[in-house]
Specification:
8-stranded mixed beta sheet, 4-stranded mixed beta sheet, alpha+beta, 10 helices
Length: 479
């Protein structure tokens, strides 16, 4: 009997239990909060391998939007951060601060970047002191936001669903007629696809992959029916058209529009809308088969934000809300190989980069010469953190890459849970995640650099690990 009691207690601890649920009705609690992460002017903006401009204006404030859920046994935090990318070590610092401030273990925290391109890149490419100071500020503000969400924990009810907005998702990788191919940065004309080829390009054949038009939704209400928080995920890269200023892009516009549509303004505590980046590694909002209508800066951001919010509002009112569901969260470390530049490629890069005196406003060839030399310094393998969360019959997967739509669709189709979606750019940044087929086709997302360096089979190995973890959350729930 004593041995059996020990095993049960150990199992509860392994699942991150706050306490054994008391007798009587089980209660779900939820809390949400935002934490301002707007950088000072002068910070580096955008990108991972390019030289982003320095911020000279702020159009709208950046936020870390935080949601904490507690089923009486397991407590988890999900946070979306208005940054282009966030390096693993910065997210790990935020998790360590969170644990010190709240006791919430790092393996119960999911942090992800929106990937708006009008925000800082919290990733040390060519950092200046101001950039490094912002990285520490960012980690602390994320931890503060989680603590505030915990402070707001209150009885809640939960539900989930999905809508569709196909008019804003297009595969940006196009198969190109051989006679229209142009050399890549390495002087090769072997790429069969072109990323963002331009509107009505003469060589267009067809998109090189599918898209995912779903808007996945996790909704929380106070027990009196007031909206508490809505977490959504949509698979579009970003919208753009920000005129060079700091902006949260459509991710922030969505949050504001949804608050307005749900009539949740001036609540105490405030309603929080969270929009996560899904599987958009090869997807953006531009339809290159026809020319667009010109729009003023921010007009399309606001259009997409409002119309996606309208679809979420429609689904929100159709959801069957429950007063309690089980919550489980598991994570693992997956070791993957790093693609290596050949000796010939390294010699090419050294010839180009060694003669470069200016380190800004580089042309594409020089950028990839530098990147070749940087990736040559990488270890032979890297370990990625993969997470899976179960909330009732909803599964959420978290991957630290720019996941292609095909991989996300495969995870949805094969998940053991009734509804599942994947969050990209989570818990760090390990570049694009092309499928093996996409590696064969070539194109920007496959060019060896700090934005693309994982082994060609990485997407399949990550997909399989995600499915294993989703199954593990089911097993954990039955203990």
């Amino acid at each position: 009997m004593l041995l059996r009691l020990f095993v049960v207690c150990a199992g509860i601890t392994a699942l991150g239990a706050a306490a054994v649920p008391p007798a009587g009705p089980r209660i779900l609690r939820a809390g949400a909060a935002t934490s301002n992460i707007t950088p000072p002017l002068g910070i580096s903006l955008d990108g991972v391998i390019a030289q982003g401009a320095r911020a000279t204006h702020i159009h709208d404030e950046l936020q870390a939007r935080c949601l904490v859920l507690d089923d009486g046994r397991t407590r988890v935090a999900l946070v979306i951060v208005d940054n282009t990318v966030v390096a693993t070590e910065i997210f790990e610092r935020a998790k360590a601060l969170t644990q010190a401030q709240t006791g919430l273990p790092p393996d119960r925290v999911l942090l992800a970047a929106t990937h708006t391109h009008s925000t800082p890149r919290a990733y040390a490419i060519t950092p200046q002191q101001q950039d490094l100071e912002y990285h520490e500020f960012l980690a602390r503000r994320i931890a503060d936001g989680i603590q505030r969400a915990i402070n707001n924990l209150a009885p809640a009810r939960v539900g989930w669903g999905a809508g569709k907005k196909p008019e804003y998702v297009f595969n940006r990788r196009w198969l190109i007629k051989p006679e229209t191919r142009v050399p890549n940065p390495f002087g090769e004309t072997t790429d069969q696809v072109m990323m963002n080829p331009g509107y009505a390009h003469a060589g267009l054949i067809e998109p090189a992959g599918p898209v995912d038009p779903e808007v996945s939704i996790l909704a929380l209400q106070h027990l009196d029916g007031r909206p508490l928080a809505v977490l959504a995920s949509y698979s579009v890269h970003y919208i753009g058209g920000t005129a060079g200023a700091v902006s949260s892009d459509y991710f922030g516009a969505f949050a504001e529009a949804l608050e307005h549509r749900l009539k949740a303004g001036r609540q105490d505590p405030p309603f929080v809308g969270l929009m996560f980046n899904g599987t958009s590694g090869d997807v953006n909002s531009a339809d290159y088969s026809r020319r667009p209508t010109p729009q003023r800066p921010y007009a399309r951001i606001n259009e997409v934000g409002d119309r996606v919010a309208a679809e979420v509002e429609r689904v929100y009112h159709s959801i069957n809300y429950q007063p309690w569901v089980p919550i489980e969260m598991v994570e693992s470390r997956l070791e993957l190989a790093v693609r290596r530049p050949t000796p010939e490629r390294i010699a090419w890069a050294e010839k180009i980069w060694s003669g470069t005196q200016v380190r800004t406003n580089l042309d594409r060839r020089t950028i990839y010469a530098r990147e070749t030399l940087e990736v040559a310094k990488f270890p032979a393998t890297v370990q990625l953190k993969i997470q899976a969360i179960r909330i009732g019959e909803l599964g959420i997967a978290a991957v630290p890459c720019e996941v292609f739509a095909r991989t996300g669709l495969e995870i949805k189709a094969r998940s053991p849970l009734s509804r599942t979606f994947t969050i990209g750019l989570a818990n760090g940044y390990y570049g694009y995640l092309p499928t093996p087929r996409d590696h064969e086709l070539g194109g920007y997302e496959t060019w060896l650099a700090r934005s693309s360096f994982l082994e060609p089979q990485a997407s399949e190995r990550i997909r399989d690990e995600v499915l294993r973890l989703l199954a593990a959350t089911q097993s954990a729930a039955t203990r």
